[in-house]
Amino acid sequence: MRIAQVSPLFESVPPKYYGGTERVVSYLTEELVAQGHDVTLYASGDSQTRARLRPIGRQSLRLDPECIDQIAHHVLMLEHVAREAHTFDLIHFHIDYLHFPLSRRLPVPHVTTLHGRLDIPDLVPLYREFGEVPVISISDSQRRPLPWLNWQATVHHGLPATLLPFSPGPGRYLAFLGRISPEKRVDRAIEVARRIGMPLRIAAKVAPVDQRYFDEQIEPLLAQPHVEYLGEIAEAEKAAFLGGAAALLFLIDWPEPFGLAMIESLACGTPVIAWHCGSVPEVLREGVSGFVVGSLDQAERAVASIDIIDRKACRKAFEERFTASAMAGNYLRVYRELITQQLKAAPAGT
User: 190 and 279: one domain?
Assistant: First the structure.
């Protein structure tokens, strides 16, 4: 199958540091290539892939000091996609709704994975207008604000099975991985670790939009003796960071569409203690791969009970549900169905 993957340009594919969507695009692209498909990846020029790379710009926009207008780069990419669309059997977009006016006019089947939150009022009239565009959710929870979209499937994220090795433990500290922002609630993680008397290691990015929040509300908390702030870590550092932890604290305060850090942790055998929000109940199996909590007291008790979670069971949960191979297989089923639908709808003789 000739497949185009269209990635955001904010980070490289895969990202050098933090980056959820671009990381998933990388895992999917490489798995499709490994399965014998002809894949073209539209991404930043510093991306690394075994697919055919169509580079847009020199490097990821977040790391480009000369980039002022990020949208301009994406519009340029969409022109390249439109020009080459006839060479593909299907085009898979990962750039939210930016391409919708273009994609409804494309001559080939296309689908869009929506990677972000959908509980934003501004999105309603836009998605009403483009209600026929085929889309994929990354969790069933993500669909709730817009259940009437043209949903094709829910496809959970997946990681290469060999990416993060199993660590039998026991872990020596609690971990927080991701980015520091109000909705990620690293403050909750700091408080739970203080209550239980365990070290907390924080590996997290601070985006410019969250710098003031970090400076005023989080940085003063980092001076506590049980807290170690590592900053943003690279992909190669994740195995040791997550594998050495007793548990990952994922005490979010927003409808997280998926939460890649949860399955990264499970791949290492490290259980997850997560707030009952968004996709969390879909990803975790209560008492098997971690605990789902709804208060700081519950989170404290979960940490105290973390030794009852079998780390081998965490790894097994990852292998059964969240590998890149499983993810690619689920996407391929959608691709084939959309191609079949287009062939059936084509006028006779075309």
Answer: yes
